[in-house]
Design goal:
Layout: E1 5-7, E2 12-13, E3 16-17, E4 24-28, E5 31-35, E6 42-44, H1 47-55, E7 62-63, E8 86-87, H2 96-102, E9 106-110, H3 118-124, E10 127-130, H4 137-150, H5 154-172, E11 182-187, E12 192-195, H6 200-207, E13 222-224, H7 227-233, E14 237-242, H8 249-253, H9 263-267, E15 270-274, H10 275-278, H11 284-296
Parallel strand pairs: 6-7, 6-9, 7-8, 9-10, 11-14, 14-15
Antiparallel strand pairs: 1-4, 2-3, 4-5, 11-12, 12-13
Helix pairs in contact: 1-4, 4-5, 4-6, 5-11
Family: Belongs to the bacterial solute-binding protein 8 family.
Subcellular location: Cell envelope
Protein name: Fe(3+)-citrate-binding protein YfmC
């Protein structure tokens, strides 16, 4: 993943411009973005970008909040904040017509999901592509700064960034240094997808003081695993991300005698959290909710769950 930087008359600080002056030139995953002035009419095509704009006090003129193609739509915490935000389709199936109607002066796309669509977006408005779906915690937090710069809200973005760093430092004090490693995974009705140390939630849990046992596989930060594979990993802690309206595959696996061979199961250290919040949102607003749940649930302390 290439390093993303803003270039402004050679004046840089950690990849971010010191001045608020425009125009700016920003290198991103799909090329270079030129902005003559702060973006005012923004279309966002991932929930992390939507979360970040809202955290910066900006409502996009359009967002990928539809359910086309089986998308679940935005997480519940976002829905009350979306008055006046037009749907331009779903993340997987954005509508070019709806985007055009929104008259954006900036489109923020996902470098993985929208790779083949970026040339079409660029015909509508200046487009920037970041790794959200396949990004790490560091990637997503750097994007807060970059998005703030493009909106002319760099000072506020830096404040958000500093607040996030402070939040994680405080939360880490709740982590049990003697706790064993963990496996974090999304459990749907048909599959279990592990989130490695290079995924957003996998890297965040490590930042919070819990060791993630899962490394990327074949260049993928997220990948599927069978029950037998999970038993072989035998994690002391298992963190599952599920949906209340679904019957995750792990419910069936729990009926298999192999399930009881997993150390996390024997120790009473199997946690379940809302996957819409924990793995699909990935922004500053979501981060606060996730960290609070990490502490309150006893996950960081490695506290046994009541049966």
């Amino acid at each position: 993943m290439q390093r993303i930087v803003i270039v402004l008359s050679g004046l840089l600080l950690g990849g971010l411009a010191l001045a608020q002056a425009f125009p700016i030139s920003l290198k991103h995953e799909a090329g270079t973005l030129e902005l003559a002035a702060p973006a005012r009419r923004v279309v966002v095509l991932e929930y992390s970008f939507l979360d970040t704009l809202l955290a910066l006090g900006v409502k996009p003129v359009g967002a990928a909040i539809g359910t086309q193609g089986g998308d679940r739509g935005p997480a519940p915490y976002l829905k009350p904040l979306l008055d006046g935000v037009s749907s331009i389709g779903s993340r997987a199936q954005p509508s070019m017509e709806a985007i055009l109607s929104a008259r954006p002066d900036l489109i923020i796309a996902d470098a993985f999901v929208h790779k083949d669509l970026i040339p079409q977006f660029q015909k509508i408005a200046p487009t920037v592509a970041f790794h959200s779906r396949r990004g790490s915690y560091d990637d997503l937090m750097q994007q807060v700064l970059l998005i703030g710069r493009m909106l002319g809200k760099e000072k506020l973005a830096r404040t958000l960034f500093a607040d996030q760093a402070s939040l994680l430092a405080k939360a880490r004090s709740f982590a049990n240094p003697r706790a064993g490693g963990l496996v974090a995974a999304v459990a749907t009705p048909t599959s279990l997808t592990l989130h490695s140390t290079e995924s957003f939630i996998g890297s965040l849990l490590e930042r919070l003081g819990r060791k993630n046992l899962v490394k990327p596989q074949n260049g993928q930060s997220q990948f599927e695993l069978s029950l037998e594979g999970l038993v072989a990993l035998n994690p002391p802690t298992l963190v599952l991300f599920t949906a209340k309206d679904e019957n995750p595959i792990t419910r069936e696996w729990a009926k298999n005698p192999l399930w009881q061979n997993i150390e996390a199961v024997r120790r009473g250290r199997v946690w379940e959290f809302d996957r819409d919040l924990w793995t699909r949102s990935r922004g500053p607003l979501a981060l606060k909710l996730i960290v609070a749940e990490c502490i309150d649930s006893g996950l960081l302390a490695d506290r046994a769950l009541s049966r």
